[in-house]
Amino acid sequence: MTDVLLLGTDDDPSLRAALFEYETARRALSTYDVRSPYANTVAVTTVSLGAAVSLLNDLNWYLARLADAAMVRDPSVAEHEWLSRDVAARVRAGDLPAAETDARLKLYGVVDGALVEPIYATREGDEVPAYDRRPVDDTLPVRVTAAEFQ
Q: Which contacts qualify for 28-31: CB closer than 8 Å, 24 or more apart?
């Protein structure tokens, strides 16, 4: 099973409510068990990486306007790390080998159930670098492409 996580913008405190205002987005999400594991997020579980990328493509218009980030977690690539939408699409298309996705990370801190202030870090070895911007409860690592690495 492959998870999709959408992160809302700071301007709109409820991504879920904003998405469900649109009939097309509501229909695209209607077959999934929609949940919010973090503040201002929407998460669903799909059957495969291809289904996850397809869902993100279906929601593209809404994501461009309502979301800060779209992430995918596929156990065939990484059990506990997320992929940016671009990484997921490139892996799905066969343009990027899964084994070559782990060098660049965008790390979100998790504080009181909310994703906060992402930092960019380069992995050296197998460990996820420490989130060092401020004290956090946990870290959510997202693998990103070279173009997304800022």
A: 28/55, 28/58, 28/59, 29/59
* Cα-only R_g, the chain: 15
Q: For residue 36, which amino acid is it?
A: S
Is there a contact between 112 and 123 (Cβ–Cβ < 8 Å)? no
pLDDT tens for residues 81-140?
Answer: 999 999 999 999 999 999 888 899 999 999 999 999 999 999 988 888 899 889 999 999
Q: Is 57 left (phi over 0), alpha (psi -120 to 50) or beta?
A: alpha
Which amino acid appears at position 124 of this protein?
E
Separation between Cα atoms, residue 30 and residue 66, nearest integer Å: 18
Q: Please count the helices (runs of H) and the strands (runs of E) in the chain.
A: 5, 7
pLDDT tens-digit series, residues 26-42: 999 999 999 999 999 99
Q: Cβ neighbours of residue 71 under 8 Å, at least 6 residues apart?
A: 4, 5, 6, 7, 82, 83, 84, 85, 88, 142
Contacts of residue 50, Cβ cutoff 8 Å, sequence gap at least 6: 92
